[in-house]
Recover the amino acids of this structure.
């Protein structure tokens, strides 16, 4: 029976929908915005926002466009690092998929770090901060190997 595989596909969200939803959650939390506030801005319930963020409901094109306006990002933001890219290459050193980034940036520490970083206006200072963090991470990794 061919109907059975279709039923199985309906139960599991499409990885792209899950990714787009996680990017909505990431940006919303970066702005310190609640699901309720985002829902109000879009004329929908916070429960619908939850479903979008989990990927269980697909976000339509016009709604995604409106979300990009409310969250002040281009529509392309929601698709950055989406699964099924052209290169399809994943490194072995990092967890696969962007979930670990979203999880970190949704944490208290991640939000504090992000909010402080975006207040740095000078691109040269931002680059030095990135270099510093990279150096600290490399040193910690070297200590773990020793």
């Amino acid at each position: 029976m061919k109907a059975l595989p279709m039923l199985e596909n309906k139960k599991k969200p499409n990885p792209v929908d899950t990714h787009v939803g996680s990017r909505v959650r990431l940006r919303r939390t970066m702005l310190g915005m609640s699901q309720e506030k985002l829902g109000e801005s879009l004329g929908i319930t916070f429960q619908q926002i939850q479903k979008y963020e989990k990927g269980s409901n697909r976000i339509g094109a016009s709604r995604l466009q409106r979300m990009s306006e409310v969250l002040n990002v281009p529509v392309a933001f929601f698709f950055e690092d989406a699964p099924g890219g052209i290169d399809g290459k994943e490194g072995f050193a990092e967890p696969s998929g962007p979930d670990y980034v979203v999880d970190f940036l949704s944490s208290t520490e991640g939000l504090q770090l992000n909010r402080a970083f975006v207040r740095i206006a000078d691109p040269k200072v931002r680059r030095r901060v990135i270099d510093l963090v990279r150096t600290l991470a490399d040193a910690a990794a070297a200590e773990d190997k020793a």
In short: The first helix runs from residue 3 to 11. Residues 86-96 have pLDDT under 50 and may be disordered. Helices lie at 3-11, 15-30, 35-42, 46-54, 61-70, 99-106, 108-118, 123-145.
